[in-house]
Amino acid sequence: MRLSKSASGLFMLLCFLLAACTLPTSDSDDTPEITGAPIVTIASPLPNASYAEGVSVIIQASISNAGADINRVEISVDNTVIATKTDPNPTGALTFSVTQSWSAEVDSQHSIAVTAFREDGTASTPATVIVNVVDPTTLSGGDDDTDTTTDGGSSQQASGGDTTTNNTNTNTTGNATNTAAPTNTAAPTNTAAPTQVPATEAPTVPTARFTTGINVRSGPGTNFEPPIGNFAANDTTEILALNTNGTWYRVRFRGTDGWVFAQLVEVEGDISSLPREVGPATPVPPPTVVPTPVVPPTAVGASNLAFANQSVSSAVPPVCGVQFTITVTVTNNGTVQSGEARVLVEDVHTASGTVRATYDGGLLPTGGLAPGQSHTIVAPLTVSANYDEPHFIRIKLDPNNQVTESNETDNEQQLPYTLQRGGC
User: Strands 127-134 and 50-52: what pairing?
Assistant: First the structure.
């Protein structure tokens, strides 16, 4: 059928309009603009944690306000760089993490610091944490020096049917394989599989996978101090037993075993048939020795840093995954100029003692505070774990006691709250 000229023209106009409606539109650029220095927080180790000499300490840090121009991340111990992560954020993510192991050295206190740098030389405020290294003979639970694992014991991984010498099942252990060898001397090694228990009959070995760095203790509780070591994020190991209320797991660790907090573990396999154990006796703390307070002579000219006030703003109470701020006002109640000092703000998960967020960028003005002078610091925090559970904000003035004060007992406060679920 032929169309008239007018009908043909109308048809072509209609096709053009339909095509125009389907023309692609340019996407708007939703990439957020990143300004200012990167922000570093240390997730592991915990502040003031104690480790035995020779234990591999896992250092984990999160870098936010990042982007593609992060040039490197430096990790140092006692002001000496032990590792430099070059091009650590190849995808240009807004937030990324780095992990580094460090062998605990010398029975002493050590300062760990992590700093991120942009290509233009802009550097983050160093995130720092203080840890203690102690003589291993003082630890309970033991530590197997013959263990060859590194980075938190990642070679202690276990899976169903694994033929490691640590597996106690006589059908799948390395010893069972060795004793079966003489009966298969005429066959290649890889033909020994038919003599094993079929996979459908092999017992499932429950496995723990760690979503974050985690301390390993000699018993089911944070009062078993100090930790005997730790696992890094994504390490796995075999679960051997649970405590009576299921809040702690006994796991394979460095040739022996240890206990980890259940809420920080992803379980693979069935744990319903595992034994329930009371665990080691709760350690009896040594008698509390109240030192005779050394009362400094009422010095002529003593400074004293103290809290004027603090408040939670932006989210009351804080919501999971939503940034909120802690406002801290510091005053000098003393009679002379104070020295320069830091203000450390931390969010702590009450049950595990895990620090979930840290702000270590609060600095008093250069030269400190004059008598009666105050200074306000605003600390942004974002907590993204353990919602619907108790947390507390811990605020420390001059955490390293660098400023000589007439009163060192009024430099810490805690604000308890319950983290709301929000969008998590």
Answer: parallel
**What is the pLDDT at residue 156?**
37
What are the φ/ψ torsions at residue 102 (nearest 5 degrees)?
-140, 130
Mean pLDDT by 10 residues, the chain (424 residues): 53 52 46 83 84 80 91 94 93 89 83 94 93 68 34 36 36 38 41 42 77 91 89 93 94 92 93 91 76 62 81 73 90 88 92 91 83 90 92 90 86 90 86
3-state class of 154 per DSSP? helix
pLDDT at 154: 37
And the tokens for 23?
């023309």
On the question of a cis peptide bond just before residue 416, with omega within 30 degrees of 0, the verdict is: no
The Cα 231–Cα 154 span in angstroms is 7
Pairing of strands 412-418, 390-397: antiparallel
- The token duo for 376 is 């306000």
Count of CB atoms within 10 A of residue 280's CB? 15
Give the position of tokens 């920080």: 264
Decide: residue 326, CB within 10 A, 0-12 exposed, 13-18 middle, 19+ buried: buried
Q: What is the DSSP letter of 175?
A: H
Alpha carbon distance 393, 324 (integer Å): 12
**Distance, CA of 230 to CA of 113 (rounded, Å):** 19
For residue 300, the SS3 value is coil
Phi, psi of 251 (to 5 degrees): -130, 165
Whole-angstrom distance, CA of residue 216 vs CA of residue 239:
13
